[in-house]
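Figure 2 data, in text form.
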Amino acid sequence: MSEESTWIVPYGNLMTILMIFFLLLYAFTYLTGKVKYEKVVASLSEGFGRSTPAKEVQLAEYLEGYFATRAEYLKSMDMTSDRIKLVFNLPVFFEPGSVEIKESAFGVLDDIFKIMYDLPNEIIVAGFSGSTPSGSGEMLVAGGRALNIGQYFIKKGIDPQRIILKGWGASAPPGKNITPDASLFAERVEISIMREISPPNIPVSEKLLRMKENYFYGEYYYKQGDLNKSILFFERILDIDPSHWKARRMIKRIKKEQQKRQAPLSFGTHMLRNFIVA
């Protein structure tokens, strides 16, 4: 072997070791669960000098422990790169076909509220309804369930700007491990806590200075009525820190005002933002 090609052997060995390493990580996901896998990834990222939102992994671990003793409440729990998703059995919160929250559900909702209250993360509440004979009431039931849970969290003190509501009928795909042939497979409630995205590697002092400066100008142009300029400065904040909830709240507020200026709505202005019925 010539001297020019001696690098091939160590390079090939390195690639083989890396392949084995990632195969082990892949197997680890299924043997120990997504939460422990994310914990390992967070530890590895920290070891390589990358900041990771470790508090979300700790939150997921706490939720796993909490619902381990309350298995009857939960269909499944999943943690992905963008969210922690809790899929609840329908009887926990509602009777079949009903949108009224059961009194026995308030304790569970209160515990979830206490967990989410101090977090800046967005929360997605999704209501799912089963098929009805006419099919006409599916969306109203699904949307009503999401709306009532969202309103409960807001009354307890969670910022409305953090909550996104969704309603799905029986046409929605079933969740993981839910058999499609079950008569009430779609009747469930999902609460997802969206994960923060790691900000770019900018020194903390410089990052805070940039965000404060952009927020100042964004607020200034907003008060002046120049919404186009204002939204640019708030978007720059999200480029630095995607989890900056105040900037996200201002962007949503500005977009609402822009829509009103273009095509004023004659109804629905009192409803919660981002209420989606799919």
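Caption note: The CA atoms of residues 90 and 188 lie 4 Å apart.
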